[in-house]
Amino acid sequence: MSHPPQPSASTAHSRPDPLQPACEHLRAGGLVILPTDTVYGIGCEAADAGAVERLLAAKGRGRQMPPPVLVADPADLTGVVAQMPQAARAFMEAFWPGPLTLVLDADAALTWDLGESVGSIAVRMPDHRLALDLLRRSGPLAVTSANPTGAPPATDAA
Known about the structure:
- With 158 residues, the chain is an alpha+beta fold.
- The protein is 27% helix and 16% strand.
- The chain has a six-stranded mixed beta sheet with strand order 1-2-6-3-5-4, with helices on both faces.
- β1 (32-35) and β2 form a beta hairpin.
- The chain is globular and about 45 Å long.
């Protein structure tokens, strides 16, 4: 019985990078749909005020409900949150990655415009391999659930 030929090391590396188009779209100010450990989300670069406005418009949400920011690693919060309270650090160590969102004081030097955040920022590290891979490459993303405000959350791709 013959087996199909196995790809060589050179052909295995020639596959297109599935995250590259998403990263390029994010850098250009676009929105992307991404899976998380809880729901499908729609996200953009957190530092891009125009993209955040488009995100809020796509969600049907006003500036009074700023989106949380997803990170790939707690170290990504340097320069984002003011000071890390010991209790927050303990929660991160116990529950991240995972579905825990923490609301912390934003760093005073942070220039991101996520909406009317009143000096605070919601942050989370999802427990989903694809989301974490994207976040490692893109940096922090402002993300909200990929459903219109008031509609049931999108928990599958259908």
